[in-house]
């Protein structure tokens, strides 16, 4: 590297990154987008049909239902997880007994395979054999269709996703809190700020970057939810509990309409990217204001 010019050294460093980007991101995206423009089905030779698959999605009520379910899960999960995991991280900073064991307990669900998480919660939420209804019915509360019904299923999926993700989000917040400069907190305390004032005017503003990271990770994870739906409801009844990814799986591998399935995959990619980009723009405007 010593005998290379500065321009050559830059090229040597950039080329591997460009190759990795192409292999792991650009090529799969372009390949899937190309398939979304065809009528590929099973082992038949795909034929270019342009944007017909996207037009078909516009007329597909199950696609819009899966989009609605995904948006509900996204809004409920992020609205709950960000403040709740931040509050837990603040709690973990306090000198409490068995804090290490409590952190491990909270983080535990994050390392369990999602399909196992779904299996565990089936035995809790199932309306016929689930533990929750068995506890509520003797109290005079009628049997509730937590999963598999018309209205509560996306909220139940959001609950399970939040349970599995809160330890992961809390750990990121806890690491961010550990990096805050102690002299700033000490100076605010000497100025007479209460703990609540320190939290609102010092801690929260300094944690904006971490809040952004956690929010984007949660958004992308919501758009990838599949195993929870597969185990809890299988997408039923009649696709009423599908998310975008689970419906994409059904269209692609069960119905073998690969072109339509890839069109849904492109929609998921675009929605996830736009949501993350919108949050980054809003966060940057908030910092500059």
Topology, pairings included?
Blueprint: H1 6-36, H2 52-58, H3 61-93, H4 99-107, H5 114-125, H6 131-136, H7 153-178, H8 182-190, H9 195-206, H10 208-222, H11 227-232, H12 244-254, H13 258-288
Plain-language structure description:
The structure is a single chain. The chain is mainly α and 289 residues long. It has a single domain, classed as MetI-like fold (Orthogonal Bundle), CATH 1.10.3720.10. Helices cover 72% and strands 0% of the residues. It contains 13 helices and no strands. It has helices at residues 6-36, 52-58, 61-93, 99-107, 114-125, 131-136, 153-178, 182-190, 195-206, 208-222, 227-232, 244-254, 258-288. It starts with 5 loop residues before the first helix and ends with a helix. 27% of the residues are buried.
**CATH class division:** Mainly Alpha
> What structural category characterises the helix and strand content?
mainly alpha
Report on the biggest sheet.
none
Low-confidence stretches: none
CATH architecture: Orthogonal Bundle
Q: CATH topology, anyone?
A: MetI-like fold
Average pLDDT number: 87
Distance N terminus to C terminus?
Answer: 45 Å
Our estimate of the beta-strand percent is under 5%
Q: What is the string of SSEs from the N terminus onward?
A: HHHHHHHHHHHHH
Give the % helix. over 70%
Computed over alpha carbons, the radius of gyration is: 23 Å
The CATH superfamily bears the name MetI-like
User: How many domains would you count in the coordinates?
Assistant: 1
Gross geometry: globular
What is the number of strand segments?
0
Quickly count the helices: 13
């Amino acid at each position: 590297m010593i005998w290379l010019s500065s321009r050559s050294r830059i090229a040597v460093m950039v080329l591997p990154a460009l190759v990795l980007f192409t292999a792991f991101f650009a090529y799969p995206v372009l390949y899937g987008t190309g398939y979304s423009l065809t009528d590929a089905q099973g082992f038949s030779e795909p034929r270019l049909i342009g944007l017909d698959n996207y037009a078909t999605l516009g007329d597909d009520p199950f696609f819009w239902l899966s989009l609605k379910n995904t948006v509900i899960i996204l809004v409920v999960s992020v609205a709950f997880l960000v403040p709740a995991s931040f509050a837990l991280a603040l709690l973990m900073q306090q000198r409490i007994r068995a804090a290490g064991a409590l952190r491990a307990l909270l983080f535990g669900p994050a390392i369990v395979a999602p399909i196992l998480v779904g299996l565990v919660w089936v035995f809790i939420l199932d309306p016929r054999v689930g533990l929750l209804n068995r506890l509520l019915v003797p109290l005079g509360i009628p049997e509730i269709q937590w999963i598999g019904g018309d209205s509560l299923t996306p909220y139940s999926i959001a609950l399970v996703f939040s349970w599995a993700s809160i330890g992961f989000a809390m750990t990121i917040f806890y690491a961010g809190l550990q990096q805050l400069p102690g002299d700033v907190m000490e100076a605010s305390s000497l100025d007479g700020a209460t703990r609540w004032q320190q939290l609102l005017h010092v801690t929260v503003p300094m944690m904006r970057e971490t809040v952004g990271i956690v929010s984007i990770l949660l958004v992308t994870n919501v758009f990838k939810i599949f195993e929870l739906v597969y185990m809890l409801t299988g997408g039923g009844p009649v696709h009423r509990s599908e998310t975008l990814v689970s419906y994409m799986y059904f269209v692609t591998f069960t119905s073998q309409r690969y072109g339509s399935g890839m069109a849904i995959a492109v929609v998921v990619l675009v929605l996830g990217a736009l949501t993350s980009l919108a949050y980054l723009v809003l966060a940057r405007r908030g910092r500059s204001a």
